[in-house]
Design a protein that fits this description.
This protein has 4 helices and 3 strands, in the order H-E-H-H-E-E-H. The chain is of the alpha+beta class.
């Protein structure tokens, strides 16, 4: 739950932010050294299931996460 709250807090301040799980782990979280990429990925998956985030896969295979702006505006 803490990771999800930190991600949502970051997006509240930076609504157009988008990054990979590695970038989110390193740059978005205040205590990034406490979390593994796997833990952050699980938190992102939970936020996607709640339709608060969306994921975009690039042709080269990288996945980027951002706020679900459609959900926020509805």
């Amino acid at each position: 739950m803490i990771i999800e709250k930190e991600v949502l807090a970051y997006l509240a301040q930076n609504p157009n932010a988008e990054d990979s799980v590695e970038g989110i782990t390193r740059w978005w979280l205040s205590s990034s050294d406490q979390y593994t990429v796997a833990e952050v990925q699980a938190a992102l998956d939970e936020l996607i299931s709640r339709k608060l985030l969306v994921a975009r896969r690039c042709p080269e295979g990288h996945v980027y996460f951002r706020a679900n702006l459609d959900r926020r505006n509805s």
